[in-house]
Amino acid sequence: MSVNLFRLAALAGCVAMATAAQARDLTVVSWGGAYQDAQREIYFQPFTAATGIALTEDSWNGGIGALRAKAEGPASWDVIQVESDELVLGCEEGTIVPLDWEALGGEDQFLPAAVHECGVGAIVWATVLAYDGDKYPDNAPSSWADFFDTETYPGPRALRSGARQALEFALMGDGVPPDQIYDVLATDEGIERAFAKLDSIRDSLIFWEAGAQPPQLLASGEVVMTSAYNGRITAANQDEGRNFQIAWDAGFVYQIDSWVVLGNSDKPDEAMQLIAYMSDPENQKLLPPFIPYGPTHKDAAAKVDPAVLPNVPTAPENIDHGLFFDRDFWVDRVEDLNARFNAWAAQ
Amino acid sequence: MPLLAFLLAFMVLPIGGMLRLAISNGELGSAMPATTEALRAWDGQGVPPEAVVAGFAAELRAAREARALGPVAQRLNNAHPGDRSLVQGAARRLPDEPDGDWRATLAGIDEAWGEPRIWRSLQAASAPWTDLYLLQALDLERDADGDIASVRDDRAIYRSILGRTFLISLVVTLACLAIGYPLAYKLASLPPRIANPLTILVLLPFWTSLLVRSAAWIVVLQREGPINEALLALGIVDEPVQLVFNRIGVYIAMTHVLLPFMVLPLLSVMRSIPPSHMRAALSLGATPLEAFVRVYLPQTRAGIGAGCLLVFILAIGYYITPALVGGAADQMISYFVAFFTIQTVNWGMAAALGSILLAATLVLYLIYARLVGIDRLRLG
């Protein structure tokens, strides 16, 4: 019994110390891995060196539920990188708070898609058409129409599982210009048209779940072409010596991850300072050499190292072929259209 | 007592909470209490009276300013895709003063506000409880008159997914039995010196992550993998067979992952059967087959029952393995629970699917217990 009492006293001591230690550092949260390593080198450490504000890091895997839990507890996270779903839903429910756009230099300094009441774009990343350059020394696929042409390009091909970015690419393959994709998808006929296109190559289609899969599917010869996240394709070329190619001209869907401030942060001023530092074009231009995600500040694209520019979605010769992922459309329709997708898949 | 407290804390409360979430409907009530009251009293004909709509407009503005509108918008969107934008758009563009009256003002923002449909949706969201999610999880909905009807064919998925979940689990269970029974029989009949290391080999997969085992099957089964290359080299097939990213892959990988749960109960039962029984049957004139069917097999029934139950119950909850090695038409119900929990935060739908799986499993379990006899199960 005396041992238990001792343990209890020790535990109480720990709790007391933890409470006393609540004078916490500004906390920044990102996706971890090689990506966050790069961010540490170009954003986090230089920021502390320049301002004297100490930073603590954390990483997460996304999900509005996780954000909510953090926003309802005691202040622990301040600045977080989120995807578009969390940006839209979090802002509506007050989990994240509006930004001080003056401190960032004004909304017109950024790509229009990177501007949101509650978040500023951190990176532009893209879902692209990718293939193994070694398998196609000539007559490589160059459009989404080629993706759906199993006579000229026989063999299995892959898309991400679910309706998102399967329907957009189906319509691109059916000849709909990128700027009309979401107008067409807003109608029942448009949705049927997209599914009919998918149906035309049903037997050759497989679906991937995780972003790590497409490079593996290409490497193992499982598919001849696939949709893929552009950063993964470049990484496979750099790390494994592959010759995977991205058909930028075919059209791609790009999305923006944003920096946001959590609603219960007790350091909103320092949080804005950090976000402003990370949104500075002089700092943003340093990321693409590590990972080919595009900067969101209008002045940064021109400053990016020309050697890596062709791999970056926001490069001038690439971005014109891109379609900005319509986050409002998909937050509204993802459940409905995923049901349609699964009904189609089960036929 | 500690066991009771444990059961209460870790079984009854979470499951009760899940059942409650499946019928919970409090979003509108907490963000817009006056509108909720007014809509409950409304007769549901046409567009509600101006007083109700004006109250709604005032609470819409207040909810937006308090950032409390998100859950309401999501709740409406769960019943009717597109309503999230409809509500958020109205809140954004709501003027301070009505242009004429509030009914016309809202209809001016979006003509949907001039139609009865959205107001009936709001009324449905004002009830204390809802059957929306449970109906959706069974491919049903309430039509314009409030009667239960089937959803459109091209959106009806959950019944077939539930059936698919049970079919995959059944096939995997039978495959585990077909492979596990001879394996356990052989292990039980070997001397311990040889049988023990072999038993450890059966257990070995437990020490590898489920994710790794599933991913390894992709490597083995893929088009340029060893199996396809062997089939091609032997001339059995002319071109690679699709063995993964379809149902075959799911069956193979899940059978491998779950096999130990079949072997272990069988082995424990078989080890307790004296070899003299079979010898006695043979010496009394039975053929080997007859001796096996009439003497050995009945004695292993408890092990078969336990192994099948274990494998089946584990299989119906599978998520990662089918997601990795299956195709779009091979995903089981847990995949959709995860989709609603993590991606769209529609916890009502996630809870409803979970509840229906739980109910269906309990029914199957009762049938099974009646057939096999629950007191005869031996788990090891």
Descriptive keywords:
heterodimer; A: 347 residues; D-Maltodextrin-Binding Protein, domain 2; 12 strands; globular; B: 380 residues; mainly alpha; MetI-like fold; 2 domains; 2 strands
Structure description:
The complex is a heterodimer of chains A (347) and B (380). Chain A is α/β, with parallel strands linked by helices and 347 residues long. Chain A folds into 2 domains: 24-124 and 255-313, 3-Layer(aba) Sandwich (D-Maltodextrin-Binding Protein, domain 2); 125-254 and 324-346, 3-Layer(aba) Sandwich (D-Maltodextrin-Binding Protein, domain 2). Chain A has helices at 2-20, 33-51, 64-72, 84-93, 144-147, 167-173, 181-185, 188-200, 213-219, 230-240, 268-279, 281-284, 316-319, 327-346, and strands spanning 26-30, 55-59, 79-82, 96-97, 115-116, 119-132, 157-160, 205-208, 225-229, 244-246, 252-262, 322-324. In chain A, helix 2 links the parallel strand 1 (26-30) and strand 2 (55-59). In chain A, helix 4 crosses helix 14 (327-346) and helix 6 (167-173) packs across helix 8. Chain A is globular and about 65 Å long. The N and C termini of chain A lie far apart (65 Å). Chain B has 380 residues and is mainly alpha-helical. Chain B folds into 2 domains: 25-128, no CATH class; 158-376, Orthogonal Bundle (MetI-like fold), CATH 1.10.3720.10. Helix content of chain B is 70%, strand content 2%. Chain B has helices spanning 2-23, 27-31, 33-41, 50-65, 69-79, 83-93, 102-109, 116-126, 132-136, 158-189, 192-203, 210-221, 226-233, 247-271, 276-283, 288-299, 301-316, 320-325, 333-343, 347-372, and strands at residues 140-142, 148-150. In chain B, strands 1-2 form a two-stranded antiparallel sheet. The A-B interface holds A 63-65, 85, 89, 92-94, 156, 161, 206-207, 209, 216, 220-222, 328, 331-336, 338-346 and B 66-71, 73-74, 77-78, 81-85, 88, 153-157, 160-161, 164, 218-219, 222-225, 242, 245, 323-324, 327-329, 331, 339-346, 349.
